[in-house]
């Protein structure tokens, strides 16, 4: 957009926020659900909401020309080849310490220092010595003036970029060379945005964010990324099974098609049965479990998963029987399955004991 003052009479912070969100599409669903969050969306130490707000304040200053130095700095950086996002990000980065200084020390915003620094933002070729006079023209020594701002005064081409984490689609060594709008960075960021939404119980929004990733990797046709996007959806359905029901059934079926090993396949078959049940098809899920165990009779952990399924759908007797069989077969089954099965059985017994005690107390109160 071109900034002409006569068109900006009704320019509001909301306009600025929309401009920023257009450039940070990975945050749009987070933004739309802000009022539903019950804890601060801080991701690996970064608050993406604050990121949007600071960029929106900078955007408002640039758009309205108040202060004019903000727009001048923006234009200078654009001429130097910065993207609009990076140029605005550089202004926002300078704004932030001035805002904090004002809030923390309860003093008026240092508009004089801020505009003086905006005037030289991006003009510095070489950092001065600590005891040199500061290049911003304050008359102070560099170490007492712009020195503490460090790299903010010599902005990078990646200013304004948001990296919420790494490792899902790309490592840090790849992400560090990507501009903010690179699809790979968007994919990576959305994994963490979905995590925040999911942990706030916003299952639908989290699912929608991960589905955006799925459509993107389908366009790319990258098998490894496709698998990752499907697995993210599957994990979310595991975590929020109550809210999402059997949403991941088609997802898990696609993963079954792609499975490369026996272990991977059998886990996915159990996942499929679990999601079918979560979607209401409990009888079909029961039958699916029976088939899995008939085909792989010595898979003990599969039996344990079967027991959990039975217990979840009010088939306690059969569930308990499967657990007892596993515990009795201690010598012939793997240690992990034995431990899990015994722990589960003990929890059940403890639960029953507490229930019986409560019942006795109720009876005693009556008489
Ligand atoms: Zn200075
Ligand atoms: Zn940004």
CATH fold field value of the largest domain: Serine Threonine Protein Phosphatase 5, Tetratricopeptide repeat
* Main sheet overview: none
- Per DSSP E runs of 2 or more residues, the count of β-strands stands at 0
Distance between the termini: 80 Å
What binds here, in terms of ligands, is: zinc ion
Number of domains: 2
List unreliable stretches of 5+ residues: 1-6
CATH architecture of the largest domain: Alpha Horseshoe
From N to C, what is the helix and strand string? HHHHHHHHHHHHHHHHH
CATH H-level homologous superfamily name of the largest domain:
Tetratricopeptide repeat domain
Count of alpha and pi helical runs: 17
CA radius of gyration:
29 Å
Average residue pLDDT: 92
Helix share bin:
55-70%
- How does the overall form come out from the CA principal axes? elongated
What is the structural class?
mainly alpha
Approximately what portion of the residues adopt beta-strand conformation? under 5%
CATH class of the largest domain: Mainly Alpha
Structure overview:
The protein is mainly alpha-helical. The chain has two domains: 5-153, no CATH class; 183-366, Tetratricopeptide repeat domain (Serine Threonine Protein Phosphatase 5, Tetratricopeptide repeat). It is built from 17 helices and no strands. It has helices spanning 13-23, 28-32, 48-64, 68-79, 84-104, 111-120, 172-175, 183-199, 203-220, 223-239, 241-244, 249-258, 262-278, 282-295, 300-312, 316-328, 335-366. The longest helix is centred in the last third of the chain and has 32 residues, at 335-366. It starts with 12 loop residues before the first helix and ends with a helix. 34% of the residues are buried. The site of one zinc ion (ZN) has 8 residues, from α3 and α5.
